[in-house]
Amino acid sequence: MLKIQVNSIELDYEDYGTGQVLLLLHGLGSTKKDWDAQVPFFSKKYRVIALDLRGHGDSSIPINDYGVEVMTEDVKAFMDQLKIDKATFVGFSMGGAVAFQMAASYPEYVEHLVIVNSGPDFNTMGSIGEDLLKSRTQFLESKGLDVLAKEISFNMFPEEHQLELRKAFELRCKNNDYHAYYQSFVTLMDWGLGDQLQGIKARTLVVASDMDYTSVAFKQDYVDRMQNARLAIIENSRHGVVIDQPDAFNKVLEKFLEDE
Fold first, then answer.
1. Within a domain: residue 250?
2. Number of domains into which the chain is organized
3. I need a surface site. Which of 5, 32, 33, 35 has the fewest CB within 10 A?
4. Which residues form the AB hydrolase-1 domain (predicted)?
5. Helix (H, G, I), strand (E, B), or coil: what is residue 204?
């Protein structure tokens, strides 16, 4: 377990391998363990770093100061502390939002961009976003985080053979601090790049699951608005594609990295 201090908090991280840096950013309410199937695979050829974002996992849980922009500043300071000039950012869900913001705010730090079942504008998703914000906050307030963790985990891993994946993700989610989860969620739903998306020049791979919460068409739409992006679709997968289809995901990411 490694820790580094940035912006008055500590970030917990893992660091394996050597070479070009892959910086892995997990989803809302989870931890760096989202990447357990990627770290051993890619650390054979790359330096792979997986960190816990603020308020998550073994990183600090501040009382205030949440949101994509704040997490982005943490990641920049983290790279500065480790003297990493550039990295390929691989962001899943909320981690994808942080990766997008890094590419918009600090393009010189971004070698390539990999966005996994995420989007550039959580604040303009229309009724999907509005319904999610309303239903999840009401669920949290009325039933608590433990019940929400069970609900989310079942939706992500509903198949019988996914029981162990479901249990592991549920445990990660229910171990969250309630306030940190709530603040991370509501600030995420208020975040968006807007016109900054078109300014991103980094070579970008967007990975979409065929059974994700948001459609493949939703991802294709923003891919079409980017300068240098392409879409890869992974079949028979839900939101947590890095977990439920790790072999297929690793193959797609490996090809993207080797094609540069």
1. yes
2. 1
3. 5
4. 21-177
5. strand
Amino acid at 183: Q
pTM for the full predicted model = 0.96
Scanning the structure block, which residue is given the tokens 């990660």?
Answer: 172
Residue pLDDT, tens place only, 10-19: 999 999 999 9
CATH number of the domain enclosing 90: 3.40.50.1820
Helix ranges restricted to H, the chain: 39-42, 68-81, 94-105, 127-143, 145-156, 163-174, 178-188, 216-224, 241-244, 246-258
Nearest to 34 by CA among 246, 234, 254: 246
In a domain, 170, yes or no: no
Residue among 214, 55, 32 at smallest CA distance from 145: 55
Residue-number span of the structural domain to which 224 is assigned: 2-124+193-258
CA–CA–CA angle 118, 39, 239 (5° rounding) = 25
Residue pair 102/36 in contact by the 8 Å Cβ criterion = no
Residue 210 counted as domain residue: yes
Question: CB within 8 A of 134, min separation 6: which ones?
Answer: none
* Cα→Cα distances 55→71, 170, 234, 257, Å: 10, 17, 30, 30
The candidate with the shortest Cα–Cα distance to 13, out of 84, 109, 102, is 84
CA atoms within 13 A on the CB side of 64: 0
Query: Distance between CA 197 and CA 35 in Å, rounded?
Result: 26
Q: Residue 37 falls within a domain, yes or no?
A: yes
